Amino acid sequence: MTDDMGMKAGVAEIDITPSPGLHLWGYAARTEPSQGALDRLYARVLVLSAGEKRLALVALDLGRCFGPSSLERLRRVVRGRSGISCVITVASHTHSGPVIQDEYSPENVPEWEMATLQKIANAIDEAHHNRQEARIGIGYGHVYIGYNRRRVEEDGKITWFNRNITRIPTSPVDPTVTVLRIDSEGGSPLAILMNYACHPVVFGPDNIKYSADFPGVAVRTAREAFGGAPVCFFLQGAAGDINPYHAVTPLAEDAVRVRDWTGAELGREAARVAHAIRTEALEPCSLDFVESHVQFGLRWQPEAFREALLNFGPEFFERFAPRIRQEWVLPLTTILVGKRIAFLAVPGEAFVEFQINWRDRCPLKDCLFLGYANGYFGYFPTIRAAAEGGYGAFGATTWIEVGAGERMVNEALVNVYKMLGRLSDAPQNTAY
Fold first, then answer.
1. Which residues pair with 422 in a beta bridge?
2. Whole-angstrom distance, CA of residue 379 vs CA of residue 359
3. Same domain, 367 and 393
4. 349 and 215 share a domain?
5. How far apart are CA 299 and CA 175, in angstroms?
6. Please, are residues 207 and 165 in contact by the beta-carbon 8 Å criterion?
7. In this structure, are 215 and 307 located in the same domain?
8. Residue range 10-32: average pLDDT?
9. Do both 231 and 352 map to the same domain?
């Protein structure tokens, strides 16, 4: 049966907190397995449809998205059951979620991961089944809860700026909170999406309990401001070089309190913006997306990279050796909602300048940058940052060739212009 041509939306939310005992993502110094949960981890699902086109956006309280094989199985299942043709998974990048790997041997796929993927597929089905005519609006706010953790010293060297509790101004930083509000046809809020760039690392390596970190508090704060009715989403941006002011706070120094402050600041601003948004039925009612696969080379000379990894010991080498490949194909997704709102989804830790650049250059004034989306390929520093060095711009955490971030933004811009009908595949006959 053919859908009506109006924009429809459905939402769902599920608890994906694992049982204790899994190792946690993000800190090399943390070797103990998890011992329970400080707060629960969730997957939140938004399904949008216009005519026969259907898209599922899945926001995850995880350090990274699932690997290529797992995501392909998820897409195959929901395509067959709900006709979903595009699935975007976006991880918050909390460093208090379970470790996820790109690939597993058949006998070593974690039970938690298989069960969670099934839960997500069921949640997508639920959101799809509950779709209703939707009204959409977008708004913007500003909040400062983080800083740029790459510090340029007087001699030009880059050092690691781990915490900034005195809130020294740094640059570049993007304080923009982009808020997308989706209402039912009658005006009741269904979903509130907040897009912001900041590492969820208030908790440090001494925390060995699952937590969504500050995004969980932000989501809860925004939802409470609307009486608990809408499903609220945190969509991580280009947070590759942005830390919260109270990064890696030891538990003994009241880490829970500063986590709550950080999340509440963001959540209150998102709620303030959301309350002021006036939603409307989008005209034209359309949903377009391009799923690109962009080829890149390895940043390092393979033998030199291999030798550098071996210097860190056999365990480190075993972990990072799969990165020694000559070619990489990265998934990149560009979305247009109603020819008015653009999404760029990048599979890794893009530096914040890419988010600013995307917003400055996109032909639509309303646009969102989603990091940690549909894969994990390490850091994407700017060309300048790669030349300067420092964490995230040099070493085993960045293995895709220099210039990858710039190319992905350019690719997305071309996709947007094509979807808007402003670029053609055929030349014009122009006489001079």
1. none
2. 20
3. yes
4. no
5. 31
6. no
7. no
8. 95
9. no
Q: Is 45 left (phi over 0), alpha (psi -120 to 50) or beta?
A: beta
pLDDT band at 426; cut points 50, 70, 90: confident
Residues 135-151: what's their mean pLDDT? 97
User: Does some domain include residue 428?
Assistant: no
197 and 113 within one domain: yes
Assigned token pair, 330 = 């990265």
- What span, in angstroms and rounded, lies between the C-alpha atoms of 391 and 243? 13
pLDDT at res. 120: 98
pLDDT in tens, 250-305: 999 999 999 999 999 999 999 999 999 999 999 889 999 999 999 999 999 999 99
Share of the chain above pLDDT 90, in %: 89
Residues making up the chain, counted from first to last: 432
Rounded to 5 degrees, what angle do the CA atoms 109, 110, 115 make? 110
Residues 247 and 304 in one domain: no
pLDDT (tens digit per residue) in 67-76 = 999 999 999 9
Total domains, the chain: 2
* Confidence (pLDDT) at 67: 95
Determine the pLDDT at residue 1: 36
Smallest CA-to-CA distance from 285 within 320, 243, 337 is with: 337
Phi-psi region of 93 (alpha: psi -120 to 50; beta: other; left: phi over 0): left
- Averaged over 166-187, what is the pLDDT? 97
> Per-residue pLDDT for 169 more than 70?
yes
**Lookup: tokens for 74:** 């998820």
Within-domain flag for 152:
yes
- What is the domain extent for residue 243? 7-276
Strands 379-380 and 349-350: parallel
- Residue 14 sits at the vertex; the CA angle it makes with 259 and 208, to the nearest 5 degrees, is 40
User: What's the whole-model pTM score?
Assistant: 0.96
**Residue 412 within any structural domain of the chain:** yes
Check residue 95 and report its DSSP letter.
T
Instruction: Confirm whether 431 is domain-assigned.
Output: no
Q: Which of 249, 276, 303 is the last residue of a domain?
A: 276
pLDDT digit string, tens, across residues 396-419: 899 999 999 999 999 999 999 999
CA distance 205 to 208: 7
Whether 430 shows a pLDDT value over 70: the answer reads: no
- pLDDT (0 to 100) of residue 107: 82
Q: Which of 221, 256, 276 is the last residue of a domain?
A: 276
Cβ proximity of 184 and 230 under 8 Å:
no
Q: Which of 61, 60, 55 is nearest to 78 (CA)?
A: 55
Whether 327 and 270 share a structural domain: no
215 lies in the same domain as 340: no
Amino acid at 71: L
